[in-house]
Design a protein that fits this description.
Blueprint lengths: L11 E2 L2 H8 L8 E5 L5 H8 L4 E5 L3 H11 L4 E3 L8 H4 L4 E6 L5 H10 L7 E9 H7 L10 H6 L3 E9 L4 E2 L6 E8 L9 H12 L7 H8 L3 H7 L12 H15 L1
Parallel strand pairs: 2-3, 2-5, 3-4, 5-6
Antiparallel strand pairs: 1-8, 6-9, 7-9
Helix pairs in contact: 1-2, 8-11
């Protein structure tokens, strides 16, 4: 019997209804598919039933990778690596559909890495990913809400995001102590151009460093009180970071770059 490793954040999905729901979120017949953290291969089996063109899986755990190879043979291509150290663009020349029951301890790190490293051409056509519910709530949060913050802003820059469902701990083995949520991400056709995404990370970090404080201090820190930017973006410096919508943050990052070019 395979034991889940707490150090790798492993919780294996076993609920057949949820597995069906995940696989039916998007059409994958004759498509390239990538699964992150397949574990014991429960979702992998459902993916293969849909007749994709090719299936890749990234599994860091050596023993699980061996078990997957024994179970599926040449039906899948196993990448026995750490997902955080892989350059997906070098692996996939065609767009892939990505499924992932992401390890909760590194889920935001994985997603942020993908978004920050995105070029003009996307390497995926959609992402179907599971997160701890609390993290998912932050990803999809709207401005003027308590959950809205850096993660919401960075994730929604180039992606449209929709929540599919919430998932109870009983759907997993071992059971996590928290609820989970399934999200689907699609590339946006239009988004504000930011030359270096690290500038968006910097802008959001400085603004949300003291989320209960007014915008005046972080704005002055970044823009030296530049009134042209204030007037152009119509920003009220008495507001707080959570009161500024997504588009304004993307424009702020763009203006920040323009001032430094």
């Amino acid at each position: 019997m395979i034991k889940a490793k707490k150090s790798l954040g492993q919780n294996f999905l076993i609920d057949k209804n949820i597995l069906e729901k995940i696989i039916n979120t998007t059409f994958i017949k004759d498509k390239m598919v990538l699964e992150i953290g397949p574990g014991t291969g429960n979702l992998t089996s459902y993916i293969l039933k849909k007749n994709p063109k090719k299936v890749f899986v990234i599994e860091k755990d050596n023993q699980l990778a061996i078990n997957l190879n024994n179970k599926f043979k040449n039906q899948i291509t196993i990448i026995n690596e750490d997902v955080l150290k892989i350059d997906e663009t070098s692996f996939f020349k065609d767009n892939v559909t990505v499924f992932g029951n992401l390890p909760y301890n590194i889920s935001t790190e994985i997603l942020s890495k993908w978004i920050i490293n995105l070029k003009d051409v996307f390497w995926f056509d959609c992402l179907v990913l599971m997160f701890q519910k609390e993290v998912a709530d932050r990803i999809i949060a709207k401005f003027n809400t308590a959950n809205y913050g850096r993660l919401s802003i960075i994730c929604n820059w180039k992606l449209n995001i929709k929540k599919i469902c919430d998932i109870k701990p009983s759907a997993f083995s071992p059971k996590p102590k928290v609820d989970s949520s399934l999200l689907i991400f699609y590339p946006k056709k239009k988004f504000i151009n930011i030359k270096d995404p690290k500038n968006l990370e910097k802008i959001t970090r400085i603004f949300f460093n003291q989320r209960r404080k007014m915008l005046k201090k972080p704005f002055n820190q970044l823009f030296n009180g530049n009134h042209r930017v204030l007037d152009k973006l119509k920003i009220d410096l008495t507001l707080r970071p959570q009161n500024i919508n997504l588009e304004t943050y993307y424009k702020l990052a763009s203006e920040y770059e323009n001032l430094r070019s």
